[in-house]
Amino acid sequence: MRKVAVRCAAANDEEDLTGLFDDRETKRPRRSEAATSSDAAPKKDAKKEKEFAWMDSEDEDEEDEKAKDQKAKDQKAKDEKAEEDDNEEVTLEKLEAVKSFGRMMVLSESLGKKLKDGALGSSEVAAACRALARSKFFDGDLLEELCKCLPKMLEANKLTAEEATDAIVCLHELNFYNKELFSAVAKSFKTKVSAIAPAVRCAMLQCMEVIGHKQDPDFQQLLQAPPLLPGSPNYKTIRCAFFAKGTCTLGSLCTYAHN
User: Fold this and answer.
1) DSSP-assigned states of every residue in 203-216
2) pTM over 0.85
3) pLDDT, tens digit, for every residue of 67-118?
4) Count of CA atoms in the C-beta half-sphere (13 A) of 144
């Protein structure tokens, strides 16, 4: 009897499985290529970003440099303006307009130089005294220069009684005593007391008493009781109030009666 050849199912399965794996192997490269293509896109973008990053960085650096340069220019202009303000030249008009401590500070350097050089007239010096007193501006060096300048002007008869009073009122307001200046005022106006206005005499006397100037009691007595003129009917007839107290400092020069 003739035998029929029978194929093993396992063999068929092996063939089938082999075909299946072959199909998978052929399909895998396609998926791999697609994945590679999709991965390449962000890499290219990253590469482009990296290529242009230095350009953005240069732009930012340039903007920073411009900002720094502008800031430096602004600061320089501000410093120059401040220096110009600090070196502002003093004038009579500017002194008369001083109302604050800060404004007086701006003018103080120029004022000190001009006082030292003797470049100010009597009206400017008196205005400076009023400005210092008004602004309560205390500068020891500046006041020392003022006290060096004023006696010379008094000796040269360049100051009026009102201007001299502005000077000692200034020192009184700033609580700055200079014996030489107060004595120079007394010496300059001792023989002119009768011609000084009562309000000015009162201001002079008050400053000398409050600040404690005791070197010129005869002048202070004259400020309180101005001398009588020889042609006056009261000359040597009205009793001297200071003599009655035993404090008259004028002696025989007193124009009031000592009896």
Assistant:
1) HHHHHHHHHT--S-
2) no
3) 787 887 777 666 555 445 556 999 999 999 999 999 999 999 999 999 999 9
4) 3
DSSP code per residue over 106-128:
HHHHHHHHHHHHT---HHHHHHH
Residue pair 90/111 in contact by the 8 Å Cβ criterion:
yes
> What are the φ/ψ torsions at residue 220 (nearest 5 degrees)?
-65, -35
Residue 180, CA distances (Å) to 188, 211, 216, 252, 256 in order: 12, 13, 11, 27, 29
- What per-residue confidence (pLDDT) applies to 8? 47
Q: What is the tens place of the pLDDT at every residue in 184-197?
A: 999 999 999 999 99
Q: How far apart are CA 77 and CA 84, in angstroms?
A: 10
At residue 257, the 3 state secondary structure works out as: strand
Alpha carbons within 13 angstroms on the beta-carbon side of residue 227 total 22
Of 96, 87, 156, 100, the C-alpha closest to 125 is: 96
Cα–Cα distance, 118 to 108 (Å, whole number): 15
Contact 131, 95 (CB under 8 A): yes
Residue type present at position 208:
M
Give the list of residues 6+ apart from residue 117 with CB closer than 8 angstroms, or none: none
